[in-house]
Amino acid sequence: GLGYGNKPASVQKPGDKTMNPGAAGAGRHRRVTEPSQDRPHSDSCRGLRPRPAMSDSSNRAPLDAELGHLSAQLLAMGGLAETQLSQALYAVTRASGETASQVLELEHRLNASEVDLERELWALVARQQPAARDLRLLIAVSKMVRDLERIGDEAARVARVAHRLLSHGVHGPL
């Protein structure tokens, strides 16, 4: 009969031991180049089929756009944490109660940024189901968000120390 690709399938002769499944050592030296009609191709039995390439830019564009948006939010959050930390250090070294109060106000904005970014990040994971490389990136972003929030918490703690110093009569630069 005809095998795949309209080529004649291999025909087993009665004395041919290379294709006889019952022959001794049949599994080791079998030379079958094309499947026969009575036996399905082994790849189709296992459900292995070539998949379309996932590198198509139209499939990746929405994910890249959302990753860019998350990146911008992460940078904004990092800038906020940097501002908060530098103001906290200024507040404690210059005994500035006003600057310490600004740091505590920034703490609320930083906490809100953390919640928003984490929510968007995990919604992106659920919507886009990113592949391994992108998933690792998103997990790293999640850890960075957590670390930036911790930096903000420490900056707020330094600002509270500045308030305590002021309440105990320490005025002027340290």
What percent strand?
under 5%
Q: Kindly provide the radius of gyration, computed on alpha-carbon positions and rounded to a whole number of angstroms.
A: 33 Å
Helix content: 55-70%
Principal-axis shape equals: rod-shaped
Could you tell me the mean pLDDT? 79
Q: How many β-strands, per DSSP?
A: 0
Structural class: mainly alpha
Q: Can you write the helix and strand succession as a string?
A: HHHH
Please summarize the sheet with the most strands: none
N-to-C span: 95 Å
Unreliable runs: 1-9, 19-23, 41-54
Short description, anyone?
This protein has 174 residues and is an all-alpha fold. It has 4 helices and no strands.
Structure description:
With 174 residues, the chain is mainly alpha-helical. Helix content is 63%, strand content 0%. It is built from 4 helices and no strands. It has helices spanning 42-45, 57-94, 97-128, 132-167. The protein starts with 41 loop residues before the first helix and ends in a 7-residue tail after the last helix. Residues 1-9, 19-23 and 41-54 have low confidence and may be disordered.
Lay out the secondary structure:
Blueprint: H1 42-45, H2 57-94, H3 97-128, H4 132-167
Helix pairs in contact: 2-3, 2-4, 3-4
Overview features:
174 residues, single chain, disordered N terminus, 4 helices, mainly alpha, 0% strand, rod-shaped
